[in-house]
Please model this.
Amino acid sequence: MCGILGYVGNGNASDFLIEGLRRLEYRGYDSAGIAVYENGKIEIEKKAGRLVNLEKALESHPLRGNIGIGHTRWATHGKPSDVNAHPHGDENNHFVIVHNGIIENYEELREELQARGYVFMSQTDTEVIAHLVEWEFRTAKSLLEAVQKTVVQLRGAYGTVVMNQEDPNRLVVARSGSPLVIGYGVGENFIASDPLALLNVTRRFAYLEEVAEITRRSVEIYDREGQKVKREVHEGNFEHDAADKGQYRHYMQKEIFEQPVAIMNTLDGRIVNGKVNIN
Ligand code: GLU
Model:
């Protein structure tokens, strides 16, 4: 399972997404990609291998827009390749998604969708989500409803962010078992699978329940039954450089050398007069 990102605001979505992908690099990955709404269309750029491959591709094909999604992939279904890299879309890229995790029942869903005429481009389990959202949207009143109707059909642990070409002001996010955090900005909002990816843009976070609809000005969170729920917004007090390698050569070395401080912080206040205080 690797990383996902989302942005909606007035800023340059690509800049946020690329910086976020850089901050997620420490998790390891085999490909990376972004999708940005630009001039009435969702444009996708994705490349197998290191982030620099994606950055090079973006040099000759820059994406400029105010809403977008990004992904670093750790392949579970389908080899690492440009085609299997995320984001994935339906045939016309009207619905474009990124996904972390595994859709356990993707084979049966794919068969059902193929029987309805959907054509698959990749070998991933992920692609079923894009086509399913397209299918559900035909009878839904909104993207939110289409995603809610889609996720009840999925089995497995996942986090996903969906964007729609016809409604370029909102992202719909869904999760089950995979971590997803919403970062609150001013006139802009963010999504990430790891809060460390957002520390350069916000310290205000809410952890997602089931589904959320995010615009530049609002965050609406829904539970499994589709009821709106209130989630507390936390002020993250992460160490400023927690996402950076700092003076170390790689993240494993950083982790090793930070162990004494990590243990001290964990035990701090929990040992009183030689006794462990578990309250
Ligand atoms: N199962 C998906 C794939 O293989 C997502 C993997 C991930 O979490 O990066 O493309």
About this structure: The first helix runs from residue 13 to 24. The chain is about 25% helix and 30% strand. The mean pLDDT is 91.
